[in-house]
Amino acid sequence: MDRVDVLIVGASQAGLYAAERLAQQGLRVCVIDRRPDGVRPARRTLIVTTYLDERLGVVPKRSVLHQVDRMAVVSPNRKAVFDFRRSDWVLERALWIEELTERAREAGAEVVLGSRFLGIEHEDGKVRAVLQRDGSVERLQVDHLVGADGVFSRVARAAGLKRPPCVRIVQAEVRLPRGWDRWEARVWLEPEMCRHFVWLVPEDGRRGVIGVIEDLDRDPMAVVRTYVERLGVEVLGFQGAKVAMYHPSLRPWTRVQGLPVYLVGDAAGQVKVTTVGGTVTGLRGARALVRSIVEGVPYDKAVQDLDRELRIHWVIKRGLARMDGRAYDRLVERVHGRVREVLEQYTRDEMASAFKEILKGDLKFAAWALRHGFRHLPALGRVLWK
C-alpha cells in the first residue's frame, strides 16, 4: 500500500470497531498495531452493560465468560443491592479483541500487526504517516489519521495533542469464596482503604477477579492483598494495566499540515471516571468518529453526546472524592424508593438520563447530597440541562 483513506494506529476495541464501520462504508482502511503477529493481547476481565448491544448493535460471541444479574454496593457499615434490568456481560478482553479483529477484516479493513507508528511527515504537498515494520521504514499517504493506541498514544504526541490522565488497575484472579453468589458482582466503597473502589466480579461459578483502581502515586497491590486476606481466597494470577481517565480539558482532534487527526478510546480519555470503564464509551467515540469522517460532521459535534455523558461522570466523581466512610454509609442508606428504581432502570452508561430523573424525582435526595459533601451538584445540573 502507498495510500489509504483512513489509517488507524492501535488495534484496540475502539480502533477495530471504527475500522469495521468505516470499511462497511467503502473506505480503504488500515489498522496497524505494534503487537507482533500471533501474539495475543494481555488477558483482562471486563464487565460491560447491555448498552453494547441495545444501542451499539455489538453482540460478543465467544468472548463472554459469564453474566451478572445484580450489583452489591458496600460502604463501611451499609450495603445496597441493585438488580439489573438486563444482565451485564463479563468479557475476556483478549478474546474480545480477536473478535473485533475478525469483524474488521471481514468488513474489508486491513489489520497489520508488527507495525509501529513513528510520526507524520510533510513533503511535496503531501502528508504521510511514517511506519516501521520488520526493521524497514515505510511511508503511507493518508487522508485521515486516527490514534486508537491507548493512554500513551504516539499519535497524540506526534500531533501535539494532550494525553489524558491515567490510573493503575490491578486484578487478582481468585477462586470465589465458599457460598459466593455467582450472579452477583460486588463493589466496596472504603475511602480510608482505597481512593477509588474495590470490586469482585465472578467469571463463572468458581473463579472471579478482585480488582482495585488506584492513582499512580499509590500501590494497588497492597489493597488487593488486604481484600484477598479478608475474603480468604486463593490467588490464581494477576492482571494489570494503566487506564486513561476523562477530563473536560481534553481536545482529541486537530489538523497537522491539513491532515485531520483524531483520537478515540483510551487515547482520547473516553473513559468513565466513576467506574474507569471504557469499553462502551470507547465504542461510542468510534461511532462518532465514523460519522465525522463519512458525513463530514466536525468531530467535536459528533462526539457531543458522549462528552456530555463523560462530563456527568466527572462531576459525580469530584463529589464522591470529598466523601469519607461515614458519608458513604449515609449515601448507601438513602438509596431507596425512586432513586433505586432509576438506578435499576438505567445502565452505568446512561448516567445523564439517570441523574436527570433522580434530580427531578427525588428533591430530598438532591438536597441531602448537596449538604453532605456533594458540592458539585449544581455543576451536575448545568451539564444535564445544557
Please identify the top-level CATH class of the largest domain: Alpha Beta
Backbone structural class: alpha/beta
- CATH topology descriptor of the largest domain: FAD/NAD(P)-binding domain
- Our count of helices gives 13
Q: How large is the share of residues in beta strands?
A: 25-35%
| Cα shape | globular
Number of domains: 3
Outline the fold blueprint.
Layout: E1 3-9, H1 13-24, E2 29-33, E3 45-48, H2 51-54, E4 64-74, E5 79-92, H3 93-107, E6 110-113, E7 115-123, E8 126-133, E9 136-147, H4 154-159, E10 166-175, E11 184-188, E12 198-202, E13 207-214, H5 220-231, E14 235-244, E15 253-256, E16 259-263, H6 279-295, H7 299-302, H8 304-320, H9 325-334, H10 337-345, H11 351-361, H12 363-371, H13 377-384
Parallel strand pairs: 1-2, 1-9, 2-6, 4-11, 9-16
Antiparallel strand pairs: 3-5, 4-5, 7-8, 8-9, 10-13, 10-14, 11-12, 12-13, 15-16
Q: How is this structure best summarized?
A:
A hairpin with a 4-residue loop joins strand 4 and strand 5 (79-92).
Q: Could you characterize the architecture of this molecule?
A:
The protein is an alpha/beta fold. The chain folds into 3 domains: 173 residues, FAD/NAD(P)-binding domain, CATH 3.50.50; 106 residues, D-Amino Acid Oxidase, Chain A, domain 2 (2-Layer Sandwich); 68 residues, no CATH class. Helix content is 35%, strand content 31%. The protein contains 13 helices and 16 strands. Strands 1, 2, 6, 7, 8, 9, 15 and 16 form an 8-stranded mixed sheet that branches. An 8-stranded mixed sheet has the order 3-5-4-11-12-13-10-14. β1, α1 and β2 form a beta-alpha-beta unit. α8 runs antiparallel to α13. The radius of gyration is 21 Å and the shape is globular. The mean pLDDT is 91.
